[in-house]
Amino acid sequence: MERQSVWYSPDLVKKVVHIIRDPLDNIVARFHLDRYSKTETWLKEYPATMLGFQKWCKGIDDDNNMLISHKFVDKDLRKALSGVPCRAEFFRYVQWHNMAFAVTADLGLPELVFHYESYTTSFDKTIEDLLDFLELSPIGEPEPYVPGKVYGDYYSDDEKRAIARFTKEFSSKTTPSSTRRAIVVDYDLLNAATGLSGTSYDPTSFESSIYEWWEGSGCFDPDAKKVDDGGAPYVLPMPPPNVTGRLHMGHAIFVALQDVLARFHRMRGRAVLWTPGTDHAGIATQLQVEKLIIAEGRRRGTDEEVSSLRHDVSMTDEERDERLKELVDRDEFLERAWRYKEEQGGAITSQLRALGASADWTRERFTMDADMSAGVVEAFARLHERGLIYRGTYMVNWSPGLMTAVSDLEVEYAEEMGKLYYFKYVVEGGGGGGGGGGGGEEEEEEEYIPVATTRPETIFGDAAVCVNPKDDRYAHLIGKRVLVPMSSSSSDDGDASQRSIPVISDEYVDVGFGTGALKITPGHDVNDYELGKKYGLDLINVMNRDATMNGACGSRYAGLDRFDARERLWRDMEDAGLTIKVEPHAQRVPRSQRGGEVIEPMVSKQWFVRTEGMGAKALEAVRGGDIRIVPPRFEKVWYGWLTNVRDWCISRQLWWGHRIPVWYVGDKDEEYIVARNEDEARRKAVDAGHPPDVTLRQEDDVLDTWFSSGLWPFATVGWPQDENNGDETSDLARFYPGTCLETGYDILFFWVARMVMLGIELTGVSPFKVIYLHGLVRAADGSKMSKTKGNVIDPLDTVYQYGADSLRYSLVTGVTPGQDIPLNMDKIAANKAFANKLWNCCKFVTDNALKGVDSEEMQTLAVTGPLGREEFERLALPERYIISKCHELVESVTSDIEKYQLGAAGNKIYEFLWDQYADWYIEISKTRLYEGFGGGGDDAKTARRVLVYILDTSMRLLHPYMPFVTEQLWHHLPRAPKSDGVTANALMLADWPQMDDDVPLVKDEDAVATFECFQALTRSIRNARAEYNVEQGKKIGATVVASGHLKDAIETEIKSLIMLAKLDPDQVAVLEAGGDEAKKAAASDSVQLVVQDGVEAYLPLSGLIDIEKERQRLEKQSTKLAKEIEKLSGRLNAKGFVDKAKPEVVIKARAELAELEDQASKVQASLESLG
């Protein structure tokens, strides 16, 4: 579609909110447009990919993330902008002169981001022209753009208020710009000035702006909040996602949980370091780059292949150049991989920001950064010096598509239908003789052992046939030899004799499974490999690295793909009479997680880490209490795995990654040197007696990605650079070891155990004190999320629709440590309703309770610490109750989070805010605030104090779970000025409601018990109203009978009871139990409600119902029920029904009769109660 240019009408613009200047003197301006303007007549809708944003934005990728051009934006700004979640349908395009406008719009109200390129060489002249065109006056001199800086300091307070008043109208409708990190003014001041009146909960209107303010203000720095004696730092190493990855629910759950911990401990005064970063993702990234290369008709060429071509004298220069063009050598490949990383990388970190991750992005690390790479080399060198790294030939998972060994984690098993092939292993030199599988009736038939396999192509690698020593069928054949089918064709030296292999015995063989005889292929089966080592069998590799058959299979099969070879071999065996049958067979097929091809077990020369000793140390770290695993049930799994830990294959036949720091001496690889760089390798070679010009060739393989990420907790804070340097202020000294490693249980061994092993071995201490394991996020029905099933919930779509807070809260409160988390949209929608409830509670406080309050009282309402005993004792019952429950909640939530019971803590906050604060205290406060309910004066002051105190405290508790909405609302409450110890007056840096666990918060158990009686009384009356279908607006009478302090309390709060239970003030009485008036009330024509021992209520029937009408209704209902009972009873008593009808039909009929009889009994009782 051809892009259209349209003229921009200046009367659409109402206010320039801010103008900033980026490093290249480009101007970025933000405007608010009139929602009701003629936008539809001049703004044409195009996908962002069509627009291109005039070289600035290259469009959006498949995941709807903006791709920012390298050419016009500096690296830091580009990093901030790239990966911002966008949706193509919200983009509009308009052009004026040489200025390009990219417009994001929500419900027709756009926010315009303007990018100027070359309109004029004069920046000042451009500003003047722009303002002239928009018919506006200058609002201040823009300042140069600095990444991370908060802009807008040139505004005066009056100007800020003016902007706030203007933008107030649009505050809930405008989608804030997420295409830059500059903020107009201090966000909290602007936010507070706008007020909440007329607004509704719309997370898209403030979440990104709040995050920009947090990050730009430095709130994520460990020293953003300084508290005396704040205790040891709380350190969370963030599991590094793939640098080119995109956000999924696995990321969302770890962000939600870790952010709760980070924000909680930060508010409690601890220096919190949440270290973010990304992993180079060796296989995933290399696979993507190879796809790009293949799409160009080229492929990756090995170093040997490229070198051979370059030195091939049999070719002309033109032929050689043409062949070389088809290949991508290592240098070009790595250049393209880095370019791909730069283009695609960074999106994931922007997406983590969208979830509210309060990580210290100034310390962001990438596993292939120079300092991180130096740490990897140092770790390899040290481990090799200690004899913990060696080179050996062992069985590995081989990925033919990637042509590399892969870890167990990168292999996924799928249940698939295949075939089970039964064939004959003919006994060498054998005729009849009975026994075996081939005895048959004709004695002259060749004797054979029947064997079954799912992979006939591996027959060429068989080294034995194994039977159980107790299996009488084959006992006489043990020690004999059998002939490998078609093995004569595998001999290329002219010898047509068949290869023979021994028949061995081992109790490993299950007599009852299959034929009871196993072919043993040590070179291509994990279990067979172990048996091969046990009996010293030949290890034969029959495949090339790309899973084609090699020369060991003979010329007829060499070069064939393994599956093609399978078909040809089986046809040849059929022709030779060596097959028995083929059956369908369900089997677990190992497939590459990345490439999808079938994994081939293959023996290969690789680099390994000896893990037995390191594993023992890691095991003891948990057993000895140095590390605690949450939940504890995973300790048993930890012990089991580390007790039987296998050596770790750390080499990968890739190019993208940390190249192994090994140099081979000369042309062969028998002698090698481990060194930190080539200069050190050469010095070591010379020291070993080699000449200075000796040829050194670095190992081609790279290290397993898990090796570098295994160093994450200490390499990210300065290891080994700051090791033993005596600087107590270095990150390594302050923040290592870490506090908590939070991650999914599915990588407990692949990553966590290796971090512990490497951490203890290389630093001498455990890398963290707590391992917190969460489960997997699953679909609502508990099944795995899958694109093929269509049940994948996209986090960014969810954030866009419901807000980050609703998603976070749904994930965290659904968590029981170690258990999988079923997630459904209904739960997320319900939690958005909870956020809306909180919003409305805050609006009630700000727009009603605080309306008209003078500045002096507002200052006194700011919460600066826990409410004290003296003030508490002066309060009335409802206030003492709600504060007691709130303080009880504070202590409970604090204890739960400290114990990593995050889900339980979050649910308690929800229940308190909804069930206690909103449903009870806010309603009761109206009797204090409004003169119409008998309030005003000191009662109103007290209510304001308690309303603000409880809401402020609750938002502090809820903030780690729902950071955006709590921060947005907190600015509207009375606040103390920013203290010197914090970088911003933000809720995320405010004190936790209980900073000192040794100082208990005030509570009154008697007040709680008394008010709970008041609540029970209110509920009883409400339930009676519902039971008798009393009209909602109708007020009824009530007589409450109680004694002692309960009677006094109810009398004192009678106006609250009248309002909550909708009672008629002229027909309400509170009487002393046992008195004459109480006895008279009990004898009256009324409904008795027993609330608890010593408290009753009597509701006059005349106030509840019209007795005559109710009697007629009940009699009619009784008649109807009697007819139904008669009909159903007759059916059950009918001759033959019980005998002939199905049992379930009879049972159902009897249950229906019992239900009808019960209903009739209740109706009769109601009739009798009417007299």
TrEMBL record:
PROSITE patterns: AA_TRNA_LIGASE_I. GO terms for molecular function: ATP binding; valine-tRNA ligase activity. Keywords: Aminoacyl-tRNA synthetase, ATP-binding, Coiled coil, Cytoplasm, Ligase, Nucleotide-binding, Protein biosynthesis. One of its GO terms (biological process) is translation. It comes from the Eukaryota. It catalyses: tRNA(Val) + L-valine + ATP = L-valyl-tRNA(Val) + AMP + diphosphate. Residues 210-303, 312-821 form the Aminoacyl-tRNA synthetase class Ia domain. Its EC number is 6.1.1.9. InterPro entries: aa-tRNA-synth_I_CS, aa-tRNA-synth_Ia, Anticodon_Ia_Val, M/V/L/I-tRNA-synth_anticd-bd, P-loop_NTPase, Rossmann-like_a/b/a_fold, tRNA-bd_arm, tRNAsynth_Ia_anticodon-bd. Residues 879-1035 form the Methionyl/Valyl/Leucyl/Isoleucyl-tRNA synthetase anticodon-binding domain. The keyword Nucleotide-binding applies. Residues 1106-1171 form the Valyl-tRNA synthetase tRNA-binding arm domain. Residues 1104-1166 form a coiled coil. PANTHER family: VALINE--TRNA LIGASE, CHLOROPLASTIC_MITOCHONDRIAL 2, VALYL-TRNA SYNTHETASES. Belongs to the class-I aminoacyl-tRNA synthetase family. This is valine--tRNA ligase. It comes from Stephanodiscus triporus.
